[in-house]
Design a protein that fits this description.
Strand order of the largest sheet of chain B: 1-2
Distance between the termini of chain A: 44 Å
Shape of chain A: flat
Largest interface: A-B, 128 and 116 residues
Number of helices of chain B: 12
Largest sheet of chain A: none
Order of helices and strands of chain B: HEEHHHHHHHHHHH
Structural class of chain B: mainly alpha
Helix content of chain B: 55-70%
Order of helices and strands of chain A: HHHHHHHHHHHHHHH
Radius of gyration of chain A: 24 Å
Structural class of chain A: mainly alpha
Strand content of chain B: under 5%
Oligomer: heterodimer
Distance between the termini of chain B: 35 Å
Shape of chain B: flat
Chain lengths: 287, 292
């Protein structure tokens, strides 16, 4: 029975590969629209008047006036906030990736006595909501005079990001065939050589994935940024936007312009990073 | 595998572990110590034993939040992880020209929460909302509920929003894992006459099982601590506040270090803006806090 079914499958595919492709792409484009429309809506709304947004929320804008964007940028001090966000995000993500990969490599590849106990806290990190220890954390950081400095955000971001990074990277490493490492070992590669020449190239998709998530979460992080930073000059974008929504809470066009300005670069970064995710295992193991 | 030298694994784990201990573990332990104290943030701490716990568990709203959280977890497992897996399967089904779809599915993860809140308010609104207008247009007036105001629909409505946001997140995780499956395995299966469905469920899914397990773990823990979609929707005036207050992480008030912040946070809460009420609420933090 099953052979019969697969045979019809095959004939169908041979007969109408074109039709199948068309159906596939129609389904996929419809699904994509479901996810993308809000983004388009946000950008489009920034070009509309407040009245238009409420009366015909889904109509296209009548004019494309970029002055809303420039005024949103200036009025919101977005330049300063953007610089702070970039600095915080870059340092945090670099820390997450480097420390996370080192730890994941150890947890995934080596058997050592304390491995279970050292991994456990990272599970805990996934389970604990930040809110549950934020009170103590702020006091703790204050004791080291770290509050109101960039480190007040960077260190917690790395710490929080590490839980996810260690887990995901360990998961990806676990799916790598054991034989690759055994072969490398036989060829005389040491632990660090394997990390650099084998793991690093093979883990590029995984690293790119973790990098994407880490960038996103650091970039959009709100709670800690609000609590730990008082200095206007050190504030990151989400807090800048909070002030912005407060000041222009009913000025939707300006608000949407500001939101578009900070969202579009993120999508650009994702477009660049997702290329990294493509490279498959076969390309990697050729090295 | 055994390391070349005995201390190598420890050396590799050390930076991550020490940093993690410094910012998460030690504060978490200190905070647990706070849970048996009576302390308002400024006054002298006094030891009260398990009193705070008894108080919490006698609070009906707190218990309701607990139950709703579990319902929410179940719903998000389907709407986020399963949907993400299916999307990843669709994306990997055919060749390489899928970049557009992958980016499209991921877009909601990148959108600022404010935008998502405003947009879905437009979708769910009882009078001008997209769904209810549609239902009325085809003559199903009595079927049009007050989506976010009705206790029986609000939790589902909120779960759909989180599914919409995070399905793309899990799609990305699964996609990266699916990429790692050696192509020759899939090719061999195709030669043996396996259909695309068969390849997906009998080869691809079992091969990325470690990642699926991680995703389920992430989803469950994430749902437990998720603040974002829920707060924004259920604090709207029309919302069934208590019934749907499933968000455990949002319950307590924090004794914040600086009084100025407290004031601002409160003002922020009290202000009720024009329709659709649009408010920035605390994000859960880098998820794992690390989901965006």
């Amino acid at each position: 029975m099953s052979t019969e079914r697969t045979r019809t499958e095959r004939t169908r595919r041979r007969l109408a590969p074109r039709t199948a492709a068309v159906i596939y792409h129609v389904v996929m484009v419809t699904a994509s629209l479901f996810f993308v429309v809000p983004l388009i809506w946000m950008v489009a709304s920034s070009f509309k008047t407040k009245r238009e947004i409420f009366e015909s929320p889904f109509a296209p804008p009548t004019s494309l006036d970029l002055t809303v964007w420039t005024s949103a940028w200036e009025r919101g001090d977005l330049g300063v906030y953007a610089l702070n966000s970039v600095l915080t995000t870059v340092v945090s993500v670099a820390g997450i990736l480097v420390f996370g990969l080192l730890a994941a490599y150890a947890f995934s590849r080596f058997r050592f006595r304390l491995s279970r106990w050292l991994l456990l806290p990272f599970v805990l990190g996934l389970l604990l909501p930040v809110q549950s220890y934020i009170t103590a954390q702020s006091r703790w950081l204050d004791a080291f005079y770290l509050l109101d400095t960039r480190w007040a955000l960077i260190l917690p971001y790395i710490g929080l990001g590490l839980s996810l990074a260690v887990f995901l990277l360990k998961g990806y490493l676990d799916t790598l065939p054991r034989e690759l490492f055994e072969a490398a070992r036989i060829d005389g590669a040491g632990d660090f050589r394997m990390l650099v020449q084998l793991v690093l190239p093979l883990m590029r998709p995984g690293l790119a994935t973790v990098a994407t998530f880490s960038i996103l979460s650091c970039w959009n992080e709100f709670l800690l940024a609000m609590l730990y930073i008082q200095d206007e000059d050190l504030r990151t974008i989400p807090i800048g936007l909070l002030a912005f929504t407060g000041k222009y809470s009913t000025d939707y066009p300006t608000l949407f312009a500001a939101l578009s300005i900070i969202t579009i670069p993120m999508i650009g970064i994702y477009v660049i990073f997702h290329r990294q995710v493509i490279s498959g295992i076969t390309e990697g193991s050729v090295h | 595998m055994k390391a070349d030298r005995r201390w190598t694994p420890y050396l590799l784990v050390a930076p991550a572990f020490l940093l993690f201990a410094f910012v998460v573990l030690i504060p978490a332990v200190l905070n647990t110590a706070l849970s048996v104290m009576d302390w308002s943030g400024t006054n002298q701490m006094t030891f009260v034993g398990l009193d705070n716990f008894f108080r919490a568990f006698r609070d009906d709203i707190y218990l309701m939040a607990y139950r709703n959280t579990f319902v929410y977890i179940g719903l998000t497992l389907i709407l986020e992880v399963l949907a993400g897996l299916i999307l990843a399967g669709l994306v990997t089904m055919r060749g390489r020209r899928t970049a557009f779809y992958r980016i499209a599915f991921f877009v909601p993860v990148m959108l600022p929460m404010v935008v998502i809140a405003v947009l879905w308010a437009f979708v769910y609104s009882d009078d001008i909302g997209l769904i209810n207008s549609g239902l009325r247009a085809i003559g199903l007036d009595e079927w049009a509920p007050v989506w976010l105001g009705d206790p029986s629909t609000a939790l589902i409505a909120v779960s759909v929003v989180s599914g919409w946001i995070y399905a793309g997140f899990y799609m990305a995780i699964f996609y990266a894992a699916l990429q790692r499956i050696p192509t020759h395995i899939v090719e061999a299966a195709t030669l043996d006459g396996a259909s695309q469905w068969r390849i997906f469920f009998s080869i691809r899914v079992p091969m990325i099982r470690p990642i699926i397990e991680i995703a389920v773990l992430l989803c469950v823990t994430g749902a437990f601590q998720r603040l974002r979609p829920v707060l924004r929707h259920d604090q709207r005036r029309s919302g069934p506040r208590d019934r749907d207050h499933h968000d455990l992480s949002g319950r307590g008030r924090l004794p914040l270090p600086q009084p100025g912040l407290r004031r601002r946070a409160r003002n922020h809460h009290d202000r009720r803006g024009a329709r659709p009420r649009l408010r920035l609420h605390p994000d859960p933090g880098p998820r794992g806090g690390s989901r965006p």
